[in-house]
Amino acid sequence: MDLMVMGEIGKFPGTRTIIGMAAAMKNEYAHHTHDDCRIPRWTKREIFQYMYARPWHRISDFYLYLVCGGGGHSSLHSLFSSEKNNSKVALECSLGDNESNLLNVSLKERKGRWERKTFKIVLSYHGGSFDGWQKQPGLNTVQGLVEKSLGRFVDENKAQQLKEKSLPVEGCVSVAGRTDKGVSALQQVCSFYTWRKDVKCSDLKDAINASAPGKLKVLFISEVSRVFHPTFAAKWRQYFYIFPLEGSVEIQVSDNHMDYSSRKCENDELQQQTEHIVHGDCSTFDNENNYLGDVQICMKSSSFSVDKVNQLLCQLEGKSLSYGVFARDTKASRSTGPPTECFIFHARAVEAKLPCINKDFTEDMTVMCVELVANRFLRKMVRVLVATAIREAAAGADANALLNLMDTTCRHATAPPAPPDGLCLVDVGYGEFDQENCLIL
Predict the structure, then answer these.
(1) Domain extents in the chain
(2) Residue 131, burial from CB neighbour count under 10 angstroms (0-12, 13-18, 19+)
């Protein structure tokens, strides 16, 4: 692992000041001390610089290629094993995930609320072409385009209600998981219902596909039971993150942004020495050449081990934990307790070669692929987990580093979210999770 020497050690805050700050925040946050590493961790500014200074456009192009006809979900398997190309994940050939209990409900002689027709829509889209999933005024979102294209299939009563409220006549869709701006999806699941009996699956598919050719594509549509809900019926969600290992720049260490809380210095008096000389044998002397003792040179890593990231993530498998510290932009009422608990079925990382699909590049790119499968994910949880795992791996943290962070309620203990360009929602499952469907085994 490459290392780079940090700048001179500056003055630390006085002990009384530190105690006062800790006492003031004792009732609000449970802090994490980060005292388990010999190598100091990157600061937020440094991890942000390390994550974003990479050729993300190549990852975005790769996802666009998958959406536009490059094989979609099944093409991801080719990154690891050609034997899986003929696996049972081919979406077009199945209803997927043993959802017979949701689909095989008699559609004849329906009355009342059961008269309406509910459609399950599975689609893929390129995250870099949209401002996220959720519909927002003035933004080009996936939900906005889908609902607009379904407007002509809305029943007369609903259309009249919308007109009376001076609202556009658009469909209303529910989704399995809202994705952020820049995040792609290969098998996103949503649903749409109407009381019109003349609506066919092929009509819906043609209308949605015409809304954004080359960026948004319907994989298949099927009529399902009214009890089907893409969000609440889902039993697991599969996310994939591709992190470029090439094209990075050296982290610029700044004295004004040093993470003093992550250092381990054995001599408190030595911290207050404003000028000192460090000899090659790690013995420190002051300006008068008086011996002060052995110290540990503060150094930061300029790279990380993919195997170490995999080791950190594997510790999360098979456990139901509160991931509130890894979430972002969530309401305070949902920052603690059961709303933040997630069960991760699968968490792995591996190094791979991303195929070159752009004529401007002639060589495959080395990347780290991270696969996470859980019953649910909090907002930006995957991106924070990836960035924090990279930071902990670079610092040589213990295997339980991510688990130890669960004890804190201060989100400053985790890294800022990784770039959205590398994230993709691969699949949503409505049957029991099967390890064989994972990409990284």
Answers:
(1) 3-21+28-61+242-252+301-437, 98-231, 264-297
(2) middle
Q: Which residues contact 103 (CB under 8 A, 6 or more apart)?
A: 95, 120, 222, 224, 225, 228
CATH tag, 98-231: 3.30.70.580
The region of weakest confidence among 57-66, 194-203, 271-280 is 271-280
Specify the DSSP element, H or E, that contains 394.
helix 381-394
Comparing CA positions, the residue from 390, 371, 341, 386 lying closest to residue 439 is: 371
Which residues are designated catalytic? 180
Amino acid at 299: M
Tens digits of residue pLDDT in 289-327 = 444 444 444 567 778 899 999 999 999 999 999 998 999
Model pTM above 0.85: no
Beta strands 341-354; 173-175: pairing state: unpaired
Residue 400 to residue 73: CA distance in whole angstroms: 32
Q: Contact, 93 vs 87, CB < 8 A?
A: no
Rounded to whole angstroms, the Cα distance separating 146 from 327 reads 28
Q: Is 263 helix (H, G, I), strand (E, B) or coil?
A: coil
User: What residue ranges in 235-297 does DSSP mark as E strands?
Assistant: 236-244, 277-278, 283-285, 291-294
Kindly give the pairing relationship between strand 117-125 and strand 184-194. Answer: antiparallel
* CB contact at 8 A, 348 and 310: yes
- Of the candidates 231, 215, 226, the one whose C-alpha atom is nearest the C-alpha of residue 175 is 231
Q: What are phi and psi of 66, to 5 degrees?
A: -65, -40
Give, in degrees to the nearest 5, the angle at Cα 338 between 337 and 344.
120
**Which CATH number is associated with domain 3-21+28-61+242-252+301-437?**
3.30.70.660
Of how many residues is the chain composed? 441
Q: Provide the 3-class DSSP secondary structure of residue 215.
A: coil
